[in-house]
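pls design
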């Protein structure tokens, strides 16, 4: 598995630009950061992305990587259990420890965590409100 470079941060992306961006951008990896992790919060995230994938064709092949900055190991274990017991779209994800340094595929599910932003691998830093606008 090739190394994934640390994405560049951008303040935001206009909703219109997000709507017109090519579908290929959404077939890459999206990183979601959460400062704290719990199963309830994870369930909300999964529900959100399942609806996203259902409503927008360009999100069909999106790969999600969830990252908990507080406690990576514990979060990975909890997420692993969650996805094992709750089948969902995101069953081919990877868990990344120390973003940009090493990729760990020990857990065959996608995980994680940070309410502040949603980041696309190509470098777009998106606010959840923008996604909400796109879905409306």
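designed seq:
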């Amino acid at each position: 598995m090739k190394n994934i470079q640390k994405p560049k941060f951008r303040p935001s992306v206009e909703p219109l630009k997000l709507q017109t961006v090519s579908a290929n951008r959404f077939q890459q990896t999206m990183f979601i950061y959460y400062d704290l992790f719990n199963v309830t919060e994870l369930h909300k995230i999964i529900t959100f992305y399942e609806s996203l994938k259902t409503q927008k064709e360009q999100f069909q092949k999106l790969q999600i990587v969830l990252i908990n900055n507080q406690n990576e190991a514990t979060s990975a274990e909890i997420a692993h259990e969650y996805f094992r017991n709750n089948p969902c779209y995101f069953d081919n994800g990877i868990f990344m420890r120390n973003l940009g340094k090493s990729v760990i595929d020990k857990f065959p599910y996608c995980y994680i965590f940070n309410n502040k932003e949603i980041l696309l691998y190509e470098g777009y830093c998106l606010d959840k409100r923008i996604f909400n606008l796109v879905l409306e």
